[in-house]
Amino acid sequence: MAERTKYILDEADMPTRWYNVVPDLPEPPPPPLHPGTREPVGPDDLAPLFPQALIAQEVSTERYIDIPDEVLDVYRLWRPSPLFRARRLEKALGTPARIYYKYEGVSPVGSHKPNTAVPQAFYNAAEGVTRLTTETGAGQWGSALAFASATFGLECEVWQVRASYDQKPYRKLMMETFGAKVHPSPSELTESGRAILAADPDSTGSLGIAISEAVEQAAQAENTRYALGSVLNHVLLHQTIIGEEALKQFELAGDTPDVLVGCTGGGSNFGGLAFPFLREKLAGRMDPVIRAVEPAACPTLTRGKYAYDFGDTAGLTPLLKMHTLGHDFIPDPIHAGGLRYHGMSPLISHIYELGLIDAIAIGQEDCFAAGVRFARTEGIIPAPEPTHALAACIQEALRCKETGEEKVILTALCGHAHLDLPAYGAYLAGNISDHALPDEALEKSLAGLP
Amino acid sequence: MAERTKYILDEADMPTRWYNVVPDLPEPPPPPLHPGTREPVGPDDLAPLFPQALIAQEVSTERYIDIPDEVLDVYRLWRPSPLFRARRLEKALGTPARIYYKYEGVSPVGSHKPNTAVPQAFYNAAEGVTRLTTETGAGQWGSALAFASATFGLECEVWQVRASYDQKPYRKLMMETFGAKVHPSPSELTESGRAILAADPDSTGSLGIAISEAVEQAAQAENTRYALGSVLNHVLLHQTIIGEEALKQFELAGDTPDVLVGCTGGGSNFGGLAFPFLREKLAGRMDPVIRAVEPAACPTLTRGKYAYDFGDTAGLTPLLKMHTLGHDFIPDPIHAGGLRYHGMSPLISHIYELGLIDAIAIGQEDCFAAGVRFARTEGIIPAPEPTHALAACIQEALRCKETGEEKVILTALCGHAHLDLPAYGAYLAGNISDHALPDEALEKSLAGLP
């Protein structure tokens, strides 16, 4: 029998608790502020948007939170997800490094997003909510919430960034097949959308605008709440099942990571993998370098400002202390739609400020080159988002080739590219450029900070 | 803990042999004939098209054939595949039936096709072949062979039915990302293609025409062989890993199927699931009804003729005794591209003639209704092909609801619909009709039989 390439947990060994990194940090993250009073927001401020259970998780200082049975029951459709050793990629690179990837593309919608969509839909349904609103860029999050809403019998209404709505019809069709309603954003359905369209009738939208529309609807309509696919503490909490599983799988593999890399947009994929390993690091049980990888076109951690900013464009959300490019920022239309958010999870921003993780930015061309290399060796075509992490993985593995170090590298392959194949088509046709964010554009956008 | 919905085998329990049903049948299937002499073809006739190892498997009378380690090693990227109990669908139907589905969408390309693409690429590479040619309709098979070819370092050249090439660019992009070359068929690159284009410059092609082109290329070019994704004995042999796994998983579930349904195009998904269960049935260890489900627009088993016919349109292949609509048949452009072949696996045709399986045909509307119902309950959007089997499953489950029978139903969910979402879009928009094959069209096509 050949050497193992895949590590699967028994269902019985699937984690039954999410991990909250907050109580293990040397200091707590700065709280969200009310934009009027600039006082910390309380549960009452958030109640129009989220159910009580999620608000409690958002501010929890408990280290572990039990996963409800109803959520575990849905997770079992695709979890535990596999951990792979990328032996074919290692061989192709000629590296002495050992590369592992945790693969979340096995979920029904092909990404890690259902890990939080399912509990969010569950808690809302349990509190009598009948309709969820949300935003989506390329559509990974929207389709995850559409799937989760169908599972718990909720209506689901999605504002999709117009650029993606027009150019990537497959995700919209997936959401509709699950029974969701999808609107291009900016739309005429909300005040926020109408204001944007009045200023620019041809606006192709942004995540920030779409969030404004979904939040506005949730705040106004009956039995309706809002669901966010990244950024917030409770979202990252739900994603920690990725890292908890990976820790158990590393035990099966008899190995320990030296370097952990994950792509960051809002931070949920990265946090989901990294936080359980950060706990181990803080406890002195292992000492991995933990590295966030972001697109050069939207370099929140590496070039953004650590400041209080709105989560959305219209300024309807609380102020979040985070690395931000400014809430007016509209990124170049790079293909990694999930990494185009102007801000970064406040929790990850705080952890970065504490010096517990590092961050790099990579351009699109290197990312797609890594994606094609990975597809032709490992057989899975990675979504554009995780190609950023794979590019960083390959950088590290090639450094090991030079130094002879047998480093153990772990990355999160948070989704496949079945619905992003035109991006690969553009790359193969030579129509991809790097789009690093120009200094002037950054300065202009940061000037809009509150 | 909730009741189990997923049955996963340990990698160590993955079958290491394929099952050949031929020696267990009451009489052997009629042999392929040379179209000139009408004598049974020998290995030498097939050598320009296939490597020796596959020719040996095609005519083997051994009950079991060992799966090479190199193939097992690639299978492990996604196998063993899960068996699911469809508890949410059962509940939505209110049926006392227990519905199980074996899910092959977990493969890198999202279907069961890599189960045979991988061994075909392996055996070719092992015999020094450097390039494979093939045809593909919607592209499931082409992308599977592109993936397998990348894995074993082979060039891969695919003739894709023009209708799909034009309308479904995602599959082409997937093939290209894996490094394959894709041509629309009919093409100017082959004599067969040029002949079709001379007669009809606007031809949108058919699987039969694309096979002619790929076969012609393989027969003429150096170190080049042809690979077929269904129909032939060795292809169905490789797919039996599906049924062998499912048998073991039913042991885990402590259940036995009463009814087994699978969709049939060329027959590889159906045969792969059904043959190991047929072995058990013939040995008297269980007694499931085994049912093939085909589209009403391409009703090979239910309305075709059991006769010797060509596998392709130009008449380059041996004559195969099979249920056929005539090799000139060009089906209506229904969305289940994988079920539009004019013929049927000779082995399945023979088994049908022996009365060991039954067959029904279902129209597109019922199939998509079943697909949407399945997506919104079970969370997986099924490819258009297996919606045929799901529609039959639901029929049976609703009969059980009337009679109160607690039947155990097993179906093969051979792929997901990520690359077929426009078909769901058409259904949701009310633009799907049933397209049952008219009698006149059938008569005209059968008249062309040799």
TrEMBL record, chains A, B:
| Cofactor(s) demanded | pyridoxal 5'-phosphate
Q: Recall the GO molecular function terms of this protein's record.
A: L-serine hydro-lyase (adding indole, L-tryptophan-forming) activity; pyridoxal phosphate binding; tryptophan synthase activity
N6-(pyridoxal phosphate)lysine carried by residues = K113
Q: What is its EC number?
A: 4.2.1.20
Enzyme class per UniProt: lyase
Residue ranges annotated for the Tryptophan synthase beta chain-like PALP domain, each copy included = 77-415
Keyword set for this entry?
Answer: Amino-acid biosynthesis, Aromatic amino acid biosynthesis, Lyase, Pyridoxal phosphate, Tryptophan biosynthesis
Q: Looking at the Swiss-Prot or TrEMBL record, what is one Pfam family this protein matches? A: PALP
- Superkingdom of this protein's organism: Bacteria
- Which NCBIfam families is this protein grouped with? PRK12391.1, trpB_rel
Q: What is stated as this protein's family in its record?
A: Belongs to the TrpB family.
Protein name as it appears in the record: Tryptophan synthase beta chain
From which source organism is this entry? Amycolatopsis keratiniphila
Q: Which gene is the coding source of this polypeptide chain? A: trpB
